[in-house]
């Protein structure tokens, strides 16, 4: 998949060092399930697992997000396609130097377009740590509706955190009701 500035593709073995690098950034890891530093051997296993998935089958698939002009991996978009192939969960990570430049919106928008237009999904859900205002804003910018807050839902990195729940329906995305992606 390609956008104006990005290439979204399957992970390759050569991506492991860059994955380890940006996942080792404490700012990137802060609201994520992994700890920084993220060792290279762990990144190599992750990349192998990411590459083995299929975006069209139930289960997990991770898109590598590459800045096309520089041919550098700047993040990833996670999709967990449900067994019914009509619903999915989405998540995203963008390396710190590339944040607040619209790359996250651009990448997630491309994946949503694929999920709704090509794969015919009915609903996509997103969830984020309630303190992660940037992720919440990105979801809202793309038209996701906040559907709830789960108080002290996740125990992560030694503390209980609240989770925000978001949902986006096919008619909202396909019907032109989605908000036009804006650079952040």
UniProtKB/TrEMBL annotation:
<dbReference type="GO" id="GO:0016747">
    <property type="term" value="F:acyltransferase activity, transferring groups other than amino-acyl groups"/>
</dbReference>
<keyword id="KW-0808">Transferase</keyword>
<protein>
    <submittedName>
        <fullName>Putative GCN5-related N-acetyltransferase</fullName>
    </submittedName>
</protein>
<dbReference type="InterPro" id="IPR000182">
    <property type="entry name" value="GNAT_dom"/>
</dbReference>
<dbReference type="InterPro" id="IPR016181">
    <property type="entry name" value="Acyl_CoA_acyltransferase"/>
</dbReference>
<dbReference type="Pfam" id="PF13302">
    <property type="entry name" value="Acetyltransf_3"/>
</dbReference>
<dbReference type="InterPro" id="IPR051531">
    <property type="entry name" value="N-acetyltransferase"/>
</dbReference>
<feature type="domain" description="N-acetyltransferase">
    <location>
        <begin position="6"/>
        <end position="171"/>
    </location>
</feature>
């Amino acid at each position: 998949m390609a956008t104006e500035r990005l290439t979204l593709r399957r992970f390759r073995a050569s991506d492991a060092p860059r994955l380890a690098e940006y996942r080792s950034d404490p700012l990137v890891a802060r609201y994520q399930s992994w700890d920084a530093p993220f060792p290279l051997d762990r990144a190599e296993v992750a990349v192998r697992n990411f590459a083995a998935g299929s975006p069209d089958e139930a289960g997990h698939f991770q898109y590598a997000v590459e800045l096309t002009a520089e041919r550098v991996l700047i993040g990833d978009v996670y999709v967990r396609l449900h067994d019914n192939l009509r619903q999915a969960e989405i998540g995203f990570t963008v390396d710190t130097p590339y944040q607040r430049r619209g790359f996250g919106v651009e990448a997630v928008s491309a994946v949503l377009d694929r999920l709704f237009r090509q794969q015919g999904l009915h609903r996509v859900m997103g969830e984020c740590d309630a303190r992660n205002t940037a992720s919440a804003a990105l979801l809202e910018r793309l038209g996701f509706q906040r559907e709830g807050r789960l108080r002290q839902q996740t125990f992560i990195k030694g503390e209980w955190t609240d989770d925000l729940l978001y949902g986006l329906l096919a008619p909202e995305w396909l019907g032109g009701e989605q908000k036009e992606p804006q650079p952040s």
